Amino acid sequence: MKRILVVEDEPDIRELLENYLTHEGYEVRAAEDGVAALSLFSKESFDLVILDIMIPKIDGYGVCEVIKKQSDVPVIFLSALGDEKSLLKGYDSMADDYVTKPFSMPVFLRKVHAVLRRGDATSVNSGAVLSYGPILVNTDTMEVMAGKTKVDLTTREFDLLVLFLKNPGRVFTREMLLDMLWDYNSFVDERIVDSHIKNLRHKLGEAGSLIETVRGRGYKVAKEIS
Fold first, then answer.
1. Domain spans in the chain, listed from the N-terminal domain onward
2. How far apart, in whole angstroms, are the C-alpha atoms of residue 131 and residue 115?
3. How far apart are CA 64 and CA 203, in angstroms?
4. Which of 107, 118, 147, 187 lies most in the core, judged by the most C-beta atoms within 10 Å?
């Protein structure tokens, strides 16, 4: 049974999420502030964190930062902040999805299923090792090396990198990447792709320049390295 941590300070919304997710067959734990959330996360294992941004003690951005430093557990931000600046900040915080309040519960549950499904797909990858220039990826252990440096990626960043390395020279549009990795039908903003590519390049250091922007089309890695 998948385990989900719900972090929400509004009792009505927290109870609503607990009831719906439990009805869907998930085991749910809940916290009403950032300190309680991190305490639970440190003591128990979770497959997904649903995280409100405007929570007491430590806000959602801070909680997400700690979680992503410690694990690859996916995070879905849940917030009343729906402006562009907040959305981009959420994506830059390495959240795997961002849902604005008020929201449709059926659509939200679909997002939850999609995020967890992607995690399952990653966990059953074969043990093949992919190499591209200075980048080395073990798809079984999710270990990534850029030269002699170990690189810690989120699940989504890892999926992007593996997709590029398995298809050198192929251009992927934002729409294609959304459809393959983000469940595009759930109305995810295209800018989340740019944000994750930016984070991936940064983490890879100099090797990040191997992920090329194809102006007006999308992204690729070159078929051959010069």
1. 3-123, 129-221
2. 27
3. 17
4. 118
Cβ–Cβ < 8 Å for 9, 63: no
CA dihedral 50, 163, 197, 62 (to 10 degrees): 20
> Any idea how long the chain is?
226
Amino acid at 101: K
pLDDT tens digits for 36-65? 999 999 999 999 999 999 999 999 999 999
Q: What is the pTM of this model?
A: 0.60
In the CATH scheme, what is the code of domain 129-221?
Answer: 1.10.10.10
* Contact yes or no for 101/14 (Cβ under 8 A): no
- List Cα–Cα distances, 208 to 114, 134, 219, 223, in angstroms: 27, 10, 12, 15
- DSSP annotation of 124 reads T
